[in-house]
Write a structure and sequence with these properties.
By secondary structure, the protein is mainly alpha-helical. Helix content is about 80%, strand content about 0%. The protein contains 14 helices and no strands.
């Protein structure tokens, strides 16, 4: 029986670990400058800078962001008992985006110092919480109400972001392009950004994994969770805060990257034939990282000489999944 239970997980690992490894290798070699194989074994100064200061920080960012968004999606789907819940759909990501842009605006107008370390993640978190609270308040009528409220909040916050974005570029035309805040990219990520993201994400991810059993109980019903000694309301609120924090730290440095949180948990559940979050959550970290790595590669090769927004790639993959899930929910 033990072998039977673990077999899908072994198959998952045998599939995704090689895919993850290949994704890392592709991200090292592929970009605006193609790094030859010989340069990896004996890199010149130029290639050493490309690999160490550009490619590897981007790879680590893909892994961290893919992990954060995948776990946030898995937890949201359990907390709301809704297969369509994820940071992008529920408006959490748009709220985080608005907060991050406000942090950038404050820095530009008042010269408070670099916002990438404290201000942008902090305001991004507050924006994510605001959006989530509003969506939950207006989405109490069921899963459809939650999704519609999330879409409405996303559109509203995205409109405000576009206005602020345009204003920033108007007052400071020489400001580096900040389109990444709208569409998502890991370009320009450095080791300091990675360290900040990991410092925030690691304790949150650890707590969520340790609490996977309670997440399972909450996914079943509040009554089951309470009977097992868990305060369902307090624990749900805590999980909402933690998923907001994971979303905020990702959006602050890479902008909105949609549908990773929606697709990855479902892909993981289908691959292992289980909804047990003690398995789904850690394995979603692997699949989420893998999807992000390949999306980043595709974003660089789709149009020669141009880096496409990553969310354009993930959305092309995620929207059909969303439509499939909506169709399934309608037919039930």
């Amino acid at each position: 029986m033990i072998a039977t239970v673990s077999n899908p997980i072994v198959k998952f690992l045998w599939s995704f670990i090689p895919l993850l490894s290949i994704g890392i290798i592709l991200n090292i070699f592929i970009g605006e400058v193609i790094v030859p194989l010989g340069a990896l074994l004996d890199p010149t100064q130029a290639y050493r800078v490309i690999i160490m200061d550009i490619r590897l920080p981007e790879i680590l960012a893909c892994i961290v962001v893919g992990t954060d968004l995948a776990v946030a999606g898995a937890v949201m789907q359990a907390v709301f008992r809704n297969p369509l819940a994820e940071p992008y759909i529920t408006g959490t990501a748009s709220g985080a985006l608005l907060g991050a842009l406000l942090g950038l605006l404050i820095n530009v107008l008042f010269k408070v110092g670099s916002p990438s370390i404290i201000l942008m993640p902090l305001l991004s978190f507050l924006g994510a919480m605001l959006a989530t609270i509003v969506v939950v308040a207006f989405g109490r009528g069921g899963w459809l109400s939650l999704i519609l409220a999330g879409i409405a909040i996303s559109i509203m916050f995205s409109s405000i972001v576009m206005i602020l974005d345009t204003y920033l570029l108007t007052i400071i035309p020489t400001l580096p392009a900040i389109v990444y805040l709208l569409f998502g990219t890991v370009s320009g990520i450095n080791w300091g950004d990675d360290i900040t993201m990991i410092s925030v994400s690691l304790p949150v991810l650890t707590y969520i994994m340790v609490s996977a059993r309670e997440v399972n109980l909450l996914m079943i019903s509040d009554e089951v969770a309470q009977a097992s000694g868990t305060n369902p309301k307090a624990f749900r609120n805590l999980l909402i805060v933690l998923t907001g924090l994971l979303t905020a730290v990702s959006v602050s440095f890479t902008g909105i990257i949609g549908f990773i949180g929606l697709v990855t948990p479902h892909l993981t559940r289908l691959s292992i034939s289980s909804s047990d979050n003690s398995r789904v959550i850690p394995l979603s970290m692997i699949s989420g990282s893998t999807i992000m790595l390949y999306a980043n590669v595709v974003s660089k090769v789709l149009i020669t000489g141009t880096v496409m927004p990553i969310t354009a790639i993930t959305s092309l993959f995620g929207v059909p999944v969303l439509l499939f899930l909506l169709r399934g929910g309608r037919n039930e």
